[in-house]
Design a protein that fits this description.
There is one protein chain. The protein is mainly α. It has a single domain (2-207), classed as Up-down Bundle (Methane Monooxygenase Hydroxylase, Chain G, domain 1), CATH 1.20.58. 82% of the residues lie in helices and 0% in strands. It has 7 helices and no strands. Helix 4 (73-102) packs antiparallel against helix 7 (174-207) and helix 6 (142-166) runs antiparallel to helix 7.
Length: 209
């Protein structure tokens, strides 16, 4: 296979290393975000924003190398989609961090559910990295992507519980309610985007058989 023969060489090897670095940054950002909301630390969460900037730089490097002729044309499109989706994951983690700094303190029940979602996001990022690494030597990644999908479904269920709880909560103003809504939306969208990235990796694996 072209992919497996070229993983460690030239532009292709550089792109694979960049993807690995990008996913690792996502994993680290999810871990830091979890620590921050678990400890209710609204200061060091600004580090997530720095990680997002680094992710932007990596995405640009990947895209430039793809346009410079790395990999066969038939798979460049999916590699580009993967780079853009990973960038969206980091953007969304950053958005959740920014909104967390803006919202009032949530009640303990809702906050516990938000922490649980952040824990799942971290597990999904870990599994995404393992899935990407498995492109080297596994012919079927369905079991790995199913794990990601199951975790995403758990996030969806928790999100519904959170919104039911919030519907019974008084807020001081429309904008405060909007800020809380946006925080929950960004927090839960991270899992959707990680699932999308896992699906693209699965498509890449199938196309390279």
């Amino acid at each position: 296979m072209f992919w497996r023969l070229k993983l460690g060489r030239g532009k292709e090897g550089e792109i694979i290393s960049l993807f690995r670095e990008h996913i690792t940054i996502i994993r680290d950002a999810c871990e830091l975000f979890l620590e921050c909301i678990r400890e209710k630390d609204r200061v060091t969460i600004s580090e997530v924003c720095e990680m997002e900037k680094l992710g932007d730089t990596i995405r640009r490097e990947i895209v430039l190398k793809l346009y410079d002729g790395a990999f066969l044309p038939g798979i460049r499109g999916n590699l580009y989609r993967l780079a853009e989706t990973l960038d969206e994951v980091l953007d969304t983690v950053e958005d959740a961090a920014i909104m967390f700094m803006m919202i009032p303190e949530l009640d303990e029940g809702v906050m516990a559910k938000c922490v649980r979602i952040a824990e799942i996001n971290l597990k999904m990022a870990d599994e995404l990295l393992k899935t990407f690494e498995a492109l080297r030597n596994e012919s079927d990644l369905r079991d790995r992507t199913i794990k990601i999908r199951i975790m995403e479904e758990e996030v969806d269920a928790i999100k519904r519980e959170i919104f039911r709880r919030l519907m019974e909560t008084d807020v001081q103003s429309f904008w405060q309610g909007m800020a809380i809504y946006n925080f929950i939306r960004h927090l839960t969208n991270v899992s959707d985007l990680i699932e999308d990235a896992g699906d693209i990796i699965q498509i890449l694996n199938v196309s390279l058989r």
